[in-house]
Amino acid sequence: MEKYLLPQKPSPKRVQRRHEWKRSLIELQGRFEPKYRHHLSALLIQSYTEIGAFPHFYHVDGVPCQTHLNRLARAVNMDPPFPITSQGISALEFDTKGIYLVSVTKSGCLTVHDFETLYCHTSGLVPLGLKEDESKHVLHLSLNRQLDVVRWNIANQDEVACTSMKKNEVLIFDIGYISSEPVEVLRTRRTVTLHGSDVHKGLTDIAFTIFDKSRLIASDTNGMVNLWDRRMGVLPYLELTSNCRSTINSIQVNVENQIVFGAGRHGTIYMWDLRGGRSSSGFQSHKEVCHPPITSWKVASMLEKIGTLKAQSAIVPKEVHSIDFDPSCPYQLAFHLDDGWSGVLDIYNCQVTHVHCPPPAWLNDSNISADLLYLRKPSWLPTYSIYAVGSSSANGIHLLDFYPDPSSPCHVDYSMDIERHSSANNQEKQNKFVPLSEAVTACAAHPINGAIIAGTKNSSLLVASQHKQST
């Protein structure tokens, strides 16, 4: 009978595909890939919120400090006897390990906080309602002069340097000494006009070089960058000149300590090469006193090259408030303009790759004239290429995704359609506005946990961090 049966056709084999192990690279290599970090940054940005506020109600020898007095007078008097420019925190910065936070106010207070003490107040480890313990401050001085910038010495974390746009001096304090007097005072050289009068030079920003605690750089209100070697004296041994005599608001040194970048009032970013370039060697030659920039970029001209932006906005030259290198991508130089715009200059390709244009201040009835009296100082988060900048029109900060790739929503080549249909990203990237209780003038990001400290026009410190889930 079997010979009359039709042979059975072999059934096709069913190939079962195993699900891709998405975490294999992370588990095998022990580190996050850049694309995966960027994916996580979308969640990180959305989790920030204000978790604590610390008003500057401090004392010196039992008497309210000048910042404390100015804040009280502003609260009592509708028309205070002092200008608005004497208010607020003008700069703040963490040390490299995130242990200490230093801040300066327009009223002349220099304060070094223990960050762990501040964070304990915000995390509920200190009883609710208990005021900040001033005895926990590492240093608090009232210097009776306007202070506009403060920096840690990168090569010597016991030292902080501060200066003012109204003085031509850099004051250097050692936080190991409880003294109201600086351990060293550096000054600029005198500049005399054709008529024999002195040119006023205030100092606007400070930068220290890595691995050399003796060298210090400071920009001034006369369009120059001064370089000191503290072993040689209190006067600068070298001056870098710009193409004009206007204020340079912000300076940065690249990671190799070879290139200095500066930007200021006319919306131009300058670049000087300390190794040489158009002039002889910057650090070795002492015969030439002044050195011009090897190149410069007008920010407005670079923004005009972005066709989609030029079609929607009238681009005019704007003052550059701040420039800052991305710690996780050293060729990204962020800039912030006085109208609230922010962007990134790729120093390798010499082009603007990212831009963020918030609504103008007049839409929110913001006091534009008063806001221009402050130089806003943003900060990068230590990872993920996220830029934190105080809003020019509202109480809060913008967290901007400046990831160095077209997948960033601020990238000039960003396409929302490509982002939505990308298989590697199941969540659309977006920026985040974090509402805060006061208007922000300066930001500093913790170098390890990414907590943001915002200094305000009312001289308060606001802590913004990831939202704590209640249990």
Keywords:
single chain; 471 residues; five-stranded mixed β-sheet; four-stranded antiparallel β-sheet; 8 helices; 31 strands; 13% helix; globular
Written description of the protein model:
With 471 residues, this protein is mainly beta. It is built from eight helices and 31 strands. It has helices at 24-29, 34-46, 66-76, 115-122, 299-304, 307-312, 368-371, 416-420; strands spanning 48-54, 59-60, 63-64, 89-94, 100-105, 109-114, 139-142, 149-153, 156-163, 169-174, 184-187, 203-208, 215-220, 224-229, 238-241, 248-253, 259-264, 268-273, 290-291, 295-298, 320-326, 329-337, 342-346, 351-356, 379-380, 386-390, 396-401, 432-435, 440-445, 452-456, 461-466. It has a five-stranded mixed beta sheet, with no helix packed on it. The termini are far apart.
